[in-house]
Structures are given as C-alpha cells and as structure tokens.
Amino acid sequence: MASLDAGADVRPVVVGGRPLTVPEVVAVARHDARVEIDATAAAPMSVARAAVDELAASDRAIYGVSTGFGALATTRIGSASRDALQHALVRSHAAGTGPEVEREVVRALMLLRLQTFTTGHTGVRSEVADRYRAMLNLGLTPVVHEYGSLGCSGDLAPLAHCALAALGEGQVRTSDGDVVPGGEALAAHGLEPLRLAAKEGLALVNGTDGMLGMLALAVHDLGALFTAADVAAAMSVEALLGTDRVFAPELQGVRPHPGQVASAQNLHRLLAGSAIVESHRGEDCSVVQDAYSLRCAPQVAGAARATLQHAADVAAIELGSAIDNPVVLPDGRVESNGNFHGAPVGYVLDFLAIAAADMASISERRTDRLLDPSRSHGLPAFLAGSPGIDSGMMIAQYAQAAMVSELKRLANPASVDSIPSSAMQEDHVSMGWSAGRKLRRAIDALQRVIGIEILAAARGLELRAPLEPGAASTAVVMLLRQSIAGVGPDRWLSPELEQVTELVRRGDVVRAAESAVGPLR
C-alpha cells in the first residue's frame, strides 16, 4: 500500500465523463492539483438544463423547482419567484455552527459536487460548474462549520456554505489563509457573484459530498497507516524477543483471509535477517508462545484491511454516482428519489473507526509490554536510561492509553442514530457527516499511537545491542535518530512524540523500511 503522501499525483484532475478516484480526490483536496472539466460534459449538462428550463416554465409541481423544500414541499412557488427561491434556499441552509472544518475536507466536498454537476443529472448550467472549478483552482475555500449536517438530504449546511461563497456571500479562506467576505474574495479575481436559476440552489446543497470526501481521504490514509502498523509490530516483535515462525505462509494459508496474508507477508519480510530473532530460535528458548499482541498481529491487521477494502469498494461506487434530488434522467424526466441518504457511506465510516480503534489497542498493548520489565525479557523498566531516576517512556504509554480510550469512544457508531427533522418529513437520517468527523479524529489518534510504539520499539532494539535488528528495523531506527535521540537521561518528550507522528503521517517510516526490504503490501 502506498505511503500517505509519497509521490502525490499533482497533475490536473479532469472531472466529467468518468468516475473520480480516491488518489484524484486526495490530489485536489490535499495537494492543490488543478481541476479541469472534460469537454464531453457540456452536452449532457446542456440537455439536462433544457429539461429543467422547460419544466420551470410550466405549471407542474416539481420539488425544489416550483415548490418549497422539505416539509414545505406542498407549498407552490410562482414562476416569478423561482429564481429567488434558489437563493433563499442557499442562505437559509448555510446555518452551520462550531469550529471551522479542515481545508482539505472542504476542497474534497467541492470537487465531488463539481463532479456530480458534470454528469448531467443535476440540471445546473455550465456557469455553476465553472465557478466551482475556478474557486478550487484559485484556492478559495469557503468557511464550513463542524455542525449542520444530519447526513440526509445531503450534507446540507456544509454544501450550502460553499454555495453561499459562490454567490459572493458568507466567508472564504484565501490561498494565503486569510478569511475574507465571499464577495471580496471573488472580486479579487475578477469574478462576479453567481446568480442562480431554477433548481440550481437545490443542486448545490443536495449531496453526500462531505461525508464521501472524508471517506476518500480516510481510505487513502488508512491504507498507508495499516502498513506502518505492520512495521511497528515487526519492530516490537524483535525488541520483545518474539518469533517470526507464526507469520509463515503455510500457517496463514490455513486461514487465508487476504488482508491477514498480506500483513503476515509484511511481517515475515520485515523480520528477515534479524540477528535478534535468530538469537533465540534454538531449542533452549523457554518461550513456547508469544503474547497475543505479537502472535495475532496479522489477524487483527487483516480484519482491519478487509474492512478498509469494503470501505474502498463503497467509495468507488459513490465516486461514480450522481447524488441529487430531484435528478434529471436521460429521457428528460425530473424525478424525486432517496439517493441523498448517506447510510452506505455512514456505515463504512463507522466500520473504519472500529478498525482504527482495534489497531490502536493492539499497538498500545505491545508498547506496554516493551515498558514492563516483568514481560519484556530483559529490557530496563520503561526503557529508561537509569530506571528510578529516569521514568523513560512511562508517560508516553499513558498518552497512548488515553488515546486508545478515546478511540474506543469514537468507535461508537454515529450511523445507528437518527433524529427526525423538517417537521417529520425527513424522519430518518444517516448521521454520516458525524461518522466522518469522528473518523478523522480517530485516524489522527491512531497515527500518534503507532508513532509511540515505533519510538518505544526503537529504544528496545538499541538496548538489545550488540545483537542487531533486521535491515528494515535498522533503517527505521536510523530515520528516527536523524532528529530524535535514543536512550539517555529523561528529557522533554512531547516534541519527540510530535516528530515521530509526523514521520508516520508523511509515510517516511514505511519508506525507510521499504528502502531495506522492498515494497510492502
């Protein structure tokens, strides 16, 4: 699996004519790749717009075109007020509150909404799609707030704040990071406020793009992070005088879950040639079986990888979908539907939070074993330079434990909840946005937990000298020692914990291991 940010593809990303991919979402959201609209998108958008214009000029009751929204769907709107209806919708729905959402999430959301525009199922004009393309390329990021989406009828408030910025209202964060009024941000680049036509306001706010954007980013990040977890596990196995025999291919073949097999292959490769492992391979070794946190590492990692694969499959379907209500069909019909319900995305966001919690849990257990002299087979208490005077990594494990406890709370699924809204018209919602928000916190915590295990395992490996670890572990230890000192008198640890977390987050740990043993799975 690729490292988090290694070789990020910053070539232009073309929307329209085909589904987007997870790497493309990451490229635009995180690395500011330029966005282009495929020329083939013009025709289906034009056909769909013509169908909307024809219906908007008629007396037919079309949801969101000639009627109000939500519980107000029975209220008829006269033709003279239908454009004003769209602007009123955006303004009223831009009701988010709380902390500002991360820039990369908002950019992912806007890219995915733009992708849906280009399918020809929303009926928006090309001017609307081009405005989102321009804002992405100019680095104009609408200020979106934490709270406001129930994950049904789309991520309404987050999407509405983006639409509001396109209208020249609300707030925008510029490419320099300054927050300015939306109209000022547009004017600085010679752009006039967008004026909406029939149905366009509804098309701007009615999608699952926020939760899907967070899912795409999570799939990318967890794919690399689970590989980093294998590196951490291998280092701990070495430092704790564990065996690599349990990772043998013939044993994994007895229970051949693909993710388990991949993780075991990684561990087997990472431990190859380790003098530490060889030192206790003989019949005189008194340890019959390693603890579960060592022996079962590929089983837990394999289950997490299977969960991730399911999430990736769901993301792929969603990235090829057009979410709006109503939708314009190829034959010109404009039909109401329920495709805006976020259950498919919300479920897998919750599944991934469970996997992240368990991966952190087993990592913390290995760290605790490294620090406990009664279980570490000869390592000093808390990996301290002078136990008693020095506390070593004692409190770093406390930090791990606190995060693991938090991860368990974050694993409580959001998608099992539902709060009726809009006068009971919208009486079952997905809470998928909430699932995405807590998953992002979970991924951050998992990166930190794995980083602390790597830091502790590196100390343990150095304390096994003169025995030397395998080439992969040696490469990771050398990476750490470029900026983080080894065993010695107690010192301020917080900066070191941040440094190792960043090495995990950037993918440097996995790259170091791969430089010694080749690509990992």
Automatic annotation (TrEMBL):
Keywords: Histidine metabolism, Lyase. The keyword Lyase applies. It is found in: Cytoplasm. It catalyses: L-histidine = trans-urocanate + NH4(+). It is an enzyme of class 4 (lyase). GO terms for cellular component: cytoplasm. It holds the Pfam family Lyase_aromatic. This is Histidine ammonia-lyase. Its EC number is 4.3.1.3. Belongs to the PAL/histidase family. PROSITE patterns: PAL_HISTIDASE. Pathway: Amino-acid degradation; L-histidine degradation into L-glutamate; N-formimidoyl-L-glutamate from L-histidine: step 1/3.
